[in-house]
Amino acid sequence: MESNTSGESLPICIRNSCDNSNTEDETLLSKSVDSNIADAAFLEDNLEKNLCTNSKNGRFAEFSAFQSDVSTVREDKQGEQMTMDSEYWKELQQFGFPSSFLADTQYLQLCRHVIAESGSIQNTLENLESSEKIDNTEKSERSQFPFFSDLHLIPTLRPLRESAILPPPSAQRPSSQSLEYVDYEFSKNNTFFANDGHPLWEYSESESSSTPLKAFPFATSSHSSVKDNETFPGFGNEDKQFTTGSLEEKRRHRSLSVNDRTSAEQLTPVGPRIPVEDILLQSHRKSDHIGSNFTQRIDDGLYNHYTEKSSSVDGCKAIKKRLVWTPELHDRFLKAVNAVGVNNAVPKTILYLMNVEGLTSEHVKSHLQKYRNNLKKAATKRQREAGQFHSSASLNEVPFQNLYCNSRENALSERYPQVEVSTDDRVLYDNSLRSYTDQIPDSTVSGDETGSNAMVDNVMELDLQIQSIVHLLVTARHRVAELSMSLEQWLPHCSSSNDWVRALKEHTSLFQQNEMQLLQIQRDFEKQQRELKNLEKWSLPGVVEQGNS
DNA sequence: TGGGAAATAT
DNA sequence: GATATTTCCC
Where's the HTH myb-type domain (predicted)? Predict the structure, then answer.
């Protein structure tokens, strides 16, 4: 066997031609397995922790009890299989467990599964190593394991999460509540904090799945004092406080006390931390405002560039420099928009919320225009393609589809989809479930949005986490599969026929099967993600591209 | 002021 | 030629 196609013909992932000796190969292989396990363990850990806190918090207190119940009932089935049984999950779901929670749980189990599988491969590998069967000379000829050396594929959870699409802080205001919305930060435990450290919400005790979270209305006391831009309705000019000094401390929570216009609702508090950023100022067109001082601070990095064009005169002529919407700016913009809801977003408000020095409502206006157009475009496109996601049938048990993507298609009809999201867990789950398994009663959506503002956000956050995890899982599994494939190749050269070899082979095929599924999952997943991205961040503005004329 | 669309700049 | 922004109009 060896004679033939030696090294190179060996398919698979040979990424670097290395000439490691076999021992090295083995080591690598072994290491790879180890790291797979570690990765999986890491995932498990995180998930578990997460679930733990949740339940500790009472959010899903009833779950454990329930679960143990169910599991005993289903003792017959094998633990693992049981978890893969979508009926089981449906059942749980009907008991009111939020989808995000169930999904977390499922993934946790998947992780365990991966660990288990990795573990057995490792064992096999160990056997293999100890086995005399492996002839050193034989081994020396093939070095197909080098590729694992540089596979630090598995990213850690955190970075992934960070790169995940941030859920728009949907700002649907709870119609009847006066929760204020603020930029948040996902914390490790179950409390969410605003950027300034103010706790926004946390999982609460309420058992009802519909209101698991508790939002902390800000310390209202504080806001009144806030005064920077004060009631935002008033600020008319763009000259915000140049007194940058204060920014950092700026209370991000400036609540606008109440709404201005539309009576009603909003307490649109704050936008993001409003540090007054720096931007370059542009000299405006002829009508320059206020004199000259446009501070032009170009903050490193952050803000953008007003591309200066006519370098010549500046003050006078209508030199307006073109504002480039950097990702940072756009990000703020999105936050601001989402804080109020696209439908209520108007330049002035956004401008206020963005709190960027030097930005004018005109800038915002046009950007908003573009934004809306993009949303419409995306929505349209989406409708067209509707119905593509559910492919991979086999994955019923992996409900990672997202959430706000297909949920409430209807509501969106009114143009700005993503922001419309105002649902509760249950709804999300129903929707996602529906797409995979049809039927399942539609729960009434619109019902209560009360206090779900924060909850919705939380759900989104959790869903995001799940997405990240799925990603990790897929990657991890993929890696394991890769590993097994190479093992398979190696096997034939090991002329041995022990049980472990057989077992290994079995594992191998198993993994290959899994891999297919996973790929499918991943594909779907990515697709959804793309869609989501489209809806949510349409395209980043000029950003990077540009150059060239 | 805000929305929308034409005009420009990149 | 396609986009991103700015202007112009209502």
Answer: 317-376
